[in-house]
Amino acid sequence: MNTVVAPGTWVVLGSSSAVGVGATPGQGWVARLARTQSVHAVQVQNLARGGSTTYAALPAATTPPLDRPAPDPGRGLDSALALQPSLLILSFPSNDTAAGYAAGETVGNLLTVRQAAAAAGVPTLVLGTQPRNDLAPSQREVLAAIDGALSGELGPCFVPLQPTLAGPTGGIHPDYAAGDGIHLNDAGHALIAHQVQAALDGGLCVRPPGG
User: Quick check: pTM over 0.85?
Assistant: First the structure.
């Protein structure tokens, strides 16, 4: 897939990282991306909500398992598509895994959202997982499994983040840590924005206006 993304609305679905938690105001990765793309007549609509899991992003008609949250009607795919976006960006770094969900659940949900968006003519970038310090080694293995599966399925439409954000022990690298063990500081958010921009500039999945 190599689609030129038209100017207009780009929509972000995700959790606290996409909200910008950990960064100073205006320095979250979504805000940085919005500023970079504004010169191309792109408006970024951020529907992320702190604490969200991938179940929140599913189409509203989805019936989840009994012990899983329902889709979020105001912050999920239906709300995103109502904005008639030219690009969808998904960012759910770790809440699924912290809640005990299996890698296959997370991957399946993200692919479901991507496929539904594609059916509506909207290309999607999927961001990879992010390190956090409060996960057990087995949970870090789940994050690695999620990234491996998504990379295999999505190719250049997957944006890996763990290799640049993780420290030697698997948690957040101290240079990028906001201090709570979960979120990233300004430098970490800048790195995510750089990775997303690099994926766009590479042009192998989607290409931004003027790219």
Answer: yes
